[in-house]
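Record 1 of the preview.
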Amino acid sequence: MEYRLLGRTGLKVSTFGFGTMSFGGVGRFAGTGDTTGEEARRQIDMCIEAGVNLFDTSDAYSAGRSEEELAQALGNRRNWVLIATKCYFATGRGVNDRGANRRHIIRACEASLRRLKTDFIDLYQIHGQDRQTPPEETLRAMDDLVRQGKVRYIGSSNYSGWFMMKSLAVSDRLGTERFASQQIQYSLLHRDAENELLPLAVEEGVGSIIWSPLATGYLSGKFKHGEVAAPTRLAHHGWLDKYQERGPRIVAELEAIASTRPGASASQVALNWVARRAGVSSILLGARTADQLAGNLAAASWSLTDEEVRRLDEVSATPLPYPYDIHQTVGLGAERDAPLQLQPPIRAPAD
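->
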């Protein structure tokens, strides 16, 4: 496993992390997964053995059950790893039991600490963009949690580029804790982050933590003929149709590249493509089964060539929206595929 710095911090995170949205299986997340007990521990064991040190969850996943299952699976190994969790979505019936206001952030953090059975959260993230709450209020509340020792680093999740930049500017102006990371969707099927979010990450020193790098499993290749059996997330959310225009061509290229490496899979190729993108600090793996997880973790053992990256760039390319199409046409230096500096990997010391 390789490790990278999280943005401008000195915190080292594994290139591949583990997302626990499938832990719990309660409420609207029942269609995502229902991993609990011994199976949850087995998956955590596999990750730690492979060198994963970043485990991501949220108070919204299965009404907090995901956090509880993660704590149970980690046991006395909590201090071996980094725990990232999130707040924003409703955790009660009150009008203030949601959002990025001071009251909700502090109450949500204290509840997550209890469920996670820990004294501190390594990375605490705002799970959504709250335009009703001034960013000054959000960031001062997060800064207070850091100063109190309840949180080590703070991050955003699913922010737009302009709101993320505004939040960073507010932190710089007020001298509060700055977002160290942004958790964003990114894959060969979802390349929109290349327009603003990833360039922002490189320019502003924000680490990007990637969710859904396999586009809810589509890029594994098992749905290329359109068959989806419940309870997969693609079936649960009805996302398959929107992938059919570009998806089959991308999957065909993934499988062609995988066929040149013994034991490689389309999933591993797709994960390696994300790992090569500038601004990416860690990629969250998700799995319903231990076999899926083992296959995805194997992506850490090899890398794509420059030519293979170029082929995948080409087959997954989409037209640039305004104003980025104009930037490219008139040569203003904002081309989406302009090379950005990749941070060199950090190897873990040998035992």
